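Hi U.,

Before I forget, here's the chain from the pilot set. I'm dumping it here mostly so it's searchable later in email.
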Amino acid sequence: MNKIQKREGNGGFMLTRTSESKGFTLIELLVVIAIIGILASIVLASLNTARKKGRDARRVADMKQVQLALELYYDGHSSTYPAVSGLSGVTLGTVVGVSPDYISTLPTDPNGAATPYIYQSTDNAVPTPAACTATPCLGYLIRAVLETGTTQSGLTGTIAGVACTPTGGASNNYCVKP
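Structure:
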């Protein structure tokens, strides 16, 4: 309980308040907890964005590694790339002949099988390549789906049956070709 005391000072009386208990009130504790909660939610939101950007960076690096493996395959197979049977691309793991000879294991999407990497062999015709299902295949297209869309590949439209247009939001297509 607070007490009010009367003291004499230099020209009059002063009132001072003293408290018998030393601690925080319930309101003060609730305010501190609310502030900590707000700061924690801001940090978690920033962390989630950083994780998405990290996964996107891994996807782009994976595409570069697969490009290198495909170029090695091209050099070792009479200037041709692996042919696939699908006309709209197949998952990267089903491409025959690249792994383990030219890359130890084919990469998979950091989010799992929900957004697999897509491979399509092309005839490399300019300006619009078509799907190539029989050898020799003179080109290819690889697509990954980015979460943030901060990195663009420069390839747009549908190329050899594979959609490469960045569509915004959670499905930003990132395509590479030779």
